[in-house]
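Exercise 3.2. Students should predict the tertiary structure of the chain below and write it as structure tokens, then compare their answer with the key that follows.

Predict this chain's 3D structure.
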Amino acid sequence: MAPRANWKGFLRLSLVTCPVALYPATSESEKLSFNQLNRKTGHRIKYAKVDADTGEEVANEDIVKGYKVDTDTFIEVTKEELENVALESTRTIEIDEFVDRSEIDPRYLIRPYYLVPDGKVGHDAFAVIRETIREMNKVAIGRVVLTNREHIIVLEPMDKGLMGTLLRYPYEVRSADEYFDEIQDVKVTKDMLDLARHIVNQKAGHFEPDKFEDQYETALIDLINQKRAGKPIAAKARPRGENVVDLMDALRKSIGAAEPAKDSKTAKKPRKLASGQKEMLMPIAGKKPAKEAAAKKPTAKPQRKSA
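Answer key:
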């Protein structure tokens, strides 16, 4: 079942309009997360909104937004005043122009969304807009209002739908000059480039996201499973980087390190999980001693599902 739409409105190209819905294309909810606990009781920590000066708790209806002018001065802005800010594109994604995808600096990209027709009507108009963008080999630039803020959005065809990617404004992108100015101008020799190209050719492949594993997430799951089973946790030695004394020698050694294993038959293949992630033991309710947790084995070990 698809998640709830983040936004519903209309997509407009000149006089062609259709109702659409915007859905998040990515999710962070599948990642392992932690709660903060009281070490003494094992109970969860709750946060209260308090007045910074009096220390008294403040009810939600008494909280307003404020812009900080200086240390002790704020300009209060009410909800009604914010709603009065005129944004014509509140309910409509108006396509303003078409550009080449290659012209969009990747630093401006924020997050992707799926754009689909909303309801049973408007599929014809949606298809016309989608196929026009596809046929012209361009991407469409429009505006959309999310959480009361107007964003620039790039629309491009994806299968039967459209993918919309939010863009940053120029003032949100830092200049690279202040970071790159002090990088030394180094002349790279042909021999070094030849060796480096050889390494690249040995490691050449195709973009297959299913091969990627979140190693930190896997390590967290291992840690939870070990503590769940009452096993002792041993600290792992951290790898240390080595200083490169001879760059040519390091490149030559890298070529040998990049060589594929000759005897692949003797290599033991790891057991493949359906989701490509570690198994997570069933969670337990409440806080139990480690020995009791180790004695009580879980009845099932569901595999970790991916997004």
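Discussion points: The mean pLDDT is 82. The longest helix spans residues 123-136.
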